[in-house]
Amino acid sequence: MEKTMITISAVVNAPLQTVWECWNQPEHIMKWNFAIDSWHCPAASNDPKVGGRLTCTMAAKDGSVSFEFGGTYTALEEGKHIAYTMDDERTVDISFNKSAEGVEIIETFEAESENPVEMQKGGWQAILNNFKAYVENPR
């Protein structure tokens, strides 16, 4: 079975160090890791090293549903690249590239088979857009 890979991207107008910290520190992850305003990320943990784990709880704010998202790092180069395998064996590859406008984040992930590709792309892009908004406009 051929894997479908989806790529999303955003340019974040902030220094690389700030982008990296906000991407990797759990206290920041919980503030941006959701696709729509009726959801949130009430818990996150991260051990950013090869063999380390990332785990997040994504939940509807009304308490009606929640799920755990997790993975194990397979590659990590600080400030440049992250790769991990999700708990369902799908892969994710993320690059952080300095540009004149800030930091371009390019995230490629393996699609799952239950939901349409465009829906998955839209959801992951919405989360990345939340990240951009959080870093550029801290609260």
Topology:
Elements: E1 5-12, H1 16-24, H2 26-32, E2 39-46, E3 53-60, E4 66-77, E5 81-86, E6 91-99, E7 102-110, H3 117-136
Structure description:
The chain is an alpha+beta fold and 139 residues long. The protein has one domain (5-136): START domain (Alpha-D-Glucose-1,6-Bisphosphate, Chain A, domain 4), CATH 3.30.530. It is 26% helix and 43% strand. It has three helices and seven strands. It has helices at 16-24, 26-32, 117-136; strands spanning 5-12, 39-46, 53-60, 66-77, 81-86, 91-99, 102-110. A seven-stranded antiparallel beta sheet has the order 1-7-6-5-4-3-2. Helix 1 (16-24) packs across helix 2 (26-32). The chain is globular, with a radius of gyration of 14 Å. The model has no long low-confidence stretch (mean pLDDT 96).
Write a compact overview of the structure shown.
Helix content is 26%, strand content 43%. It is of the alpha+beta class.
Strand order of the main beta sheet, please?
1-7-6-5-4-3-2
Question: Mean pLDDT score, rounded?
Answer: 96
CATH architecture: 2-Layer Sandwich
CATH homology superfamily name: START domain
Poorly predicted parts: none
Determine the N-to-C terminus distance: 44 Å
Return the domain count. Answer: 1
Count of runs of 4 or more consecutive helical residues: 3
> Per DSSP, what share of the residues sits in E-state strands of 2 or more residues?
35-45%
Could you name the key traits of this structure?
Alpha-D-Glucose-1,6-Bisphosphate, Chain A, domain 4; 3 helices; single chain; seven-stranded antiparallel β-sheet; alpha+beta; 139 residues
